[in-house]
Amino acid sequence: MKKDKFYFSVSTNAFQIEGGRNLHGRTDSLWDWFTKTYYHIPPVNSTAREINSIVEASDFYHKYPSDVKILSKLGVDAFIYNLDWARVFPTDGTKINPMGIQFYDRVFSELVAGNVKPIPILFHWDTPMWAEIKGGWTNREILTSFKNYCAAMFKYLGKYTDIWFVNDENKSFTVDGYLTGQFPPCFQDENAFVKAVHHLALSGAIAKAEFKKAKELGYVSPDAILGIDDDWSPPVIMAGVDADQKLIDNYNAWMRDLWLDPNLKGTYPQEFLDYIKSKKLDLKITPADLKLLQDNKLDFIGWNFYRPYFITSKTALIPEDQLHRPPGKLPFGDFQIVLPKNHPHYTKWMWPIAPQYLQEGLQGLKAKYDLPVFIVESGFGDFDDKSQELICDLDRIAYLQGMLTEVKAARTKDLNLIGYSIWTYCDIFSPSAGYRKDYGLVSVDFNSPIKERKPKLSYVWYQQVIESRGEDVTVNEKLLVKKLQELLKNWDIFLK
To answer: What is the CATH number of the domain that holds 164?
Structure first.
């Protein structure tokens, strides 16, 4: 990786954008099963959860050549992409699907030719069904299959990039997939939860061991780095509530350290070990496991920052009229997560808007780990008005301006920040809201048979930010509208 290089990027994820789910040897994964089984379309304009088909999604599988042109025109340095394990290993953990490898090879080749660095993430929640029916991440046997997957990806795609991630958002995957049942595999089982947590941590160490081998074999450059991506939301004590540093420390142990310490320090927080013991959970962390973690620490941190979490102690009684909804409690920890009405800004999905906590979060990561940090996801979900010729997503721009103002300030300080990536490139399937929650800088017409692309106002704004290398984050609406109009005049059939 180039030292002193700062990357402006966009990010997305295979099962949310790719489509082509039944093509060229690919078989079902966990999210194919989930969206088929729990398919649900709520009323128009509702923020209730939509669970829709991902068979086509945004059809990146067919449209990647034009999508790469759009990315190149945007001017991004990099494109962070969560790969699809089931496309490469569709039947078991040993047999590679040639067409799966060929697809990603073509995508990465196109990106590099367009001066966009591909940054792969190996796993983001989407376990192949052949592995899931054997227990998925609750079964230690999955690690042998994951090892083979890592080795194949490094061998065939290592020539294209020197920045990699193993996992994305292990916390959301395991908490919502194994404790609350909101995400697949839809468990509510503390034993399954702790097993999945541990095996995912081991998968990071196994990937690092394979990464070292790939370097020795010349598949990956000697200075390439491998990281882990976490979605820690920095804690903020709700105003007017008594709390102390112990509550903050307990929250961070569960919501940050548990997901980073094993792969960055080779240890687990004591809170997690005490939880396993006190609940008599069925997990044994062996000395060999700890040695594997110690010997194969990852190189840097990916951080998905959208918002902070407002918290109180679990026993605090907050009057209902002070909160937007009842507190969120988990089986572990001394904290509860709240949405106070006295916070002034929320998205339509009730995510707090508070970019000032970006720098505070970076300070916390530096103090704990002192490693490079790449902000992998940061974005704004909304109902975009697509009824007019111009999609003027000013609320998204305002959110991103706040974030990139903080990024600009953070880069002047010793906070180890090496990149910022917007979630997401184009409109996609959202696990929490289907196709009604727009995140993209580029619109996708999901009613169009070709999933037609069209840039939004935020696209030309981010173009301005990148051209200035992060210095110009101003918002001149009149000038941006003019730029978008000019862009649309030349938005030919090879971009749509």
So the answer is: 3.20.20.80
Is 50 within the bounds of a domain? yes
Distance CA 69, CA 87 (A): 24
Tokens found for residue 159: 């020539």
Other beta carbons less than 10 A from residue 3's beta carbon: 7
What is d(CA 352, CA 307) in angstroms, rounded to the nearest whole number? 6
Q: What is the pLDDT of residue 432?
A: 86
- The reported pLDDT for the residue numbered 272 is 97
Phi-psi region of 32 (alpha: psi -120 to 50; beta: other; left: phi over 0): alpha
**Angle of CA points 235, 240, 245, to nearest 5°:** 40
Low-confidence ranges of the chain (pLDDT < 70): 1-2
- Domain range for 221 is 7-232+286-304+345-489
Report the residue count for the chain: 496
Residue-level pLDDT at 1 = 63
CA 209/CA 298 separation, integer angstroms = 10
Please choose, from the candidates 118, 368, 375, 144, the residue with its C-alpha nearest in 3D space to the C-alpha of residue 224: 118
Tokens of 94: 């040993």
Report the alpha-carbon distance of residue 393 to residue 383 in Å, rounded.
Answer: 9
Q: Is residue 451 part of a domain?
A: yes
pLDDT for residue 76: 98
The token pair at 20 is 């082509």
User: Phi and psi (nearest 5°) for 275?
Assistant: -60, -45
Query: How far apart (Å, rounded) are the C-alpha atoms in residues 190 and 194?
Result: 6
Nearest to 197 by CA among 121, 275, 89: 275
Q: What pLDDT does 48 receive?
A: 82
Report phi then psi at 163, rounded to 5.
-130, 125
Q: CA angle, 40 as apex, 39 and 46 as ends, to 5°?
A: 150
Residue 265 placed within a domain? no
What is the number of domains present in the chain? 1
d(CA 476, CA 353): 21
**For residue 117, which of 126, 125, 107 has the smallest C-alpha distance?**
107
Residue 317 is predicted with a pLDDT of: 87
Q: E strands of 378-486, at which residues? A: 417-423, 442-444, 453-455
Q: Strand ranges (DSSP E) for 77-140? A: 78-82, 117-123
**pTM for the full model?**
0.96
Cis peptide before 185 (omega within 30 of 0): yes
CA triplet 112, 115, 121: central angle to 5 degrees? 55
Q: Is residue 154 part of a domain?
A: yes
323-357 pLDDT, tens per residue? 999 999 999 999 999 999 999 999 998 999 999 99
